[in-house]
Design goal:
Strands 5-4-7-2-1-8-3-6 form an eight-stranded antiparallel beta sheet. Helix 8 runs parallel beside helix 14 and helix 9 runs parallel beside helix 10. The protein has about 575 residues and is of the alpha+beta class. About 20% of the residues lie in helices and about 30% in strands. It has 14 helices and 26 strands.
């Protein structure tokens, strides 16, 4: 018997760009079974991956990645590899192009099956039956038959003839034990602030008394980018750090209330439900809205409202302000830190810790690259979450070491903004309407296609506003009317990419005030908007009417924020 035939010479690889490299993803259960992990690539995210991971500096090439036409012109094929523990299962990779007519439905979807054993599978663009409606690459989606999966993925784009790509050089891992790393973490401490309340919580924990550490914020607090998110998100790791330092057994408890895509405008409304309603009254609250509050239409009023609501709670918890950062080095620290200064609060800035060193050479002072810190342009990786947690742990250690200050007196302080919503509460379909008179009109149905979030240490996802009012094309176009005594009212509505939904117009005391557009952002989550503020504390009538142009479409009212007496 002869030996194997000599193999053919290997085909020379085309120039290629890694857009995802050794990236850990977490796939979540779908209602119909199996699990899914979508990676969003629109709004310049794909070109940003090519820049930060693939080292591409050619702006003309990067621009091609932002449109469907340019992508098809540049890319010959896509190389995909997936590796997870169960290598025998059959996984799927989906190239999802967003469409012009219907962003999520009218574009191309091409599915490639693959074994998650680390072997690369090549997807030829010439094999795809493209939709003429394609606008841009919207998502890379990974699907698994199991109801939950953690996997490592690589995706690279092989280029057509005539295009070149820079050499790919992977980033070095982070040395978390180095002196340079510890010096980087130390830079995060903006202010130790008045430490009386934080030290009180620390001493309670050391004495074996029950202590609750709570976190409220946006998607970073929710755990986005961390894998697995419930174990490696910054809030859980920071809580673990607090326990290691101060707990006696299991006396320190954890409350996590991060909701992606939401600002402190919604955070102040859901504080009672998502923090006080899901555990004991907290002794320490970390507030993380520094990259979400561009969506706060009051530009600071709601943030200070939330801070004051916590500070003036009956059990007097400590408040820590945490300033996270986006991949473009941006946050709202300059806007929000004056609140911390005015109330002399502990403040921690991830931006202050990491941004400067991002621009140092790899062999001369850089601790972690942007590629290793960021999962995408908005969220940290598990390494990034760990760094955020250790920035908080540095504060815990410094507060423990410091002498106690004097008891703070917040009542007499002049405010930074206009935090008039301190007594704001959530009103939804479950509340018995809090003394309000409500006529549902055509808004008689309930919508369960909502934003689902893992709260606390739950291993399941909770719908954010299930007690809602929904109008469909079948229920008609009669307005929703609420009569309520309150000097202000915020309306919480559902955002979505579904073309089944249309706009609604909001009127206050017969006067048009705004139009709520569920497609303003383009994905399923919750938005709070001010219907009115600064009016007399008398009964006001608010009508929510389907916009005449989309009266046959759906619209969902998730709830309201009103002043509790």
């Amino acid at each position: 018997m002869g030996g194997p035939k000599a193999p053919k010479d290997p085909t020379k690889k085309r120039p290629n760009i890694f857009v995802l490299y050794d990236k850990t993803i977490e796939a979540y259960a779908k209602p119909e079974g199996g699990s899914i992990s979508p990676l969003f690539l629109d709004n310049g995210r794909l070109s940003n991956y090519a820049k930060t991971i693939g080292r591409v500096e050619d702006n003309e090439l990067l621009e091609l990645l932002n449109t469907a036409e340019g992508f098809k012109k540049l890319v010959h094929s896509i190389g995909v590899s997936v590796s997870c523990e169960n290598k025998e299962q059959e996984a799927e990779f989906v190239l999802h192009m967003y469409g012009k007519t219907d962003m999520y439905q009218s574009g191309t979807r091409y599915v490639k099956k693959l074994q998650p054993n680390g072997s690369e599978v090549e997807l030829l663009l010439s094999e795809i039956d493209w939709s003429a409606d394609d606008v841009c690459v919207g998502q890379f989606v990974f699907r698994f038959p199991a109801n939950w999966e953690v996997a490592t993925i690589n995706v690279r784009l092989y280029l057509n003839d005539g295009y070149t790509a820079p050499e790919f050089i992977p980033d070095a891992p982070v040395d978390f034990d180095s002196k340079a790393y510890k010096a980087m973490i130390a830079k995060s401490l903006v202010s130790l602030g008045n430490n009386v309340r934080l030290k009180r919580a620390i001493e309670k924990a050391k004495a074996g008394e029950d202590v609750t550490v709570a976190f409220i914020g946006g998607s970073i607090t929710e755990g986005a980018g961390a894998t697995p998110s419930q174990k490696t998100c910054y809030s859980k790791v920071a809580y673990d750090c607090f326990c290691r330092r101060f707990a006696k057994g299991d006396n320190v408890h954890y409350t996590k209330a991060g909701v992606g895509g939401t600002s402190s405008e919604l955070g102040m409304i859901r504080y009672e439900r998502d923090i006080l309603g899901r555990g004991a009254a907290p002794d320490v609250v970390i507030v993380e809205f520094a990259v979400n509050d561009e969506g706060d239409e009051t530009k600071g009023d709601c943030y200070e409202t939330l801070v004051r609501k916590i500070l003036f709670s009956e059990n007097a918890p400590a408040v820590i302000l945490l300033f996270s950062v986006f991949e473009n080095d941006w946050n709202l620290q300059e806007r929000l830190s004056p609140v911390g200064v005015r109330y002399d609060l502990p403040m921690v800035s991830v931006r202050d810790a990491v941004v400067e060193q991002f621009y140092l050479p790899a062999d001369n002072g850089r601790i972690i690259s942007k590629n290793r810190f960021f999962y995408d342009i908005y969220h940290p990786t598990s390494d990034g979450h760990r760094i955020m947690a250790e920035c908080l742990d540095n504060l815990f250690a410094k507060a423990d070491e410091a002498l106690p200050g004097t008891e703070p007196d917040y009542a007499g302080l002049e405010t930074v903004f206009k935090p008039e919503f301190v007594n704001v509460r959530l009103l939804d379909r479950k509340d018995g309407f809090a003394g309000a008179e409500i006529s549902c009109g055509s808004f008689t149905e309930s919508d369960m296609d909502l934003h689902y979030v893992e709260m606390n240490l739950d291993n399941y996802r909770t719908p954010m506003f299930p007690n809602n009012w929904t109008a469909t094309g079948e229920t008609g176009d009669e307005p929703f009317v609420i009569k309520i005594k309150s000097p202000y009212l915020l309306v919480i509505t559902k955002d979505t990419g579904s073309m089944e939904f249309g706009k609604a117009d909001i009127y206050v005391d017969g006067e048009y005030v705004l139009t709520a557009d569920p497609h303003a952002v383009g994905w399923t989550h919750s938005t709070a908007q001010i219907a009115y503020r600064g009016r007399e504390n008398t009964v006001h009538t608010v009508e929510i009417r389907k916009n005449p142009e989309t009266k046959d479409k759906k619209f969902t009212i998730l709830g309201f924020g009103y002043q509790a007496e």
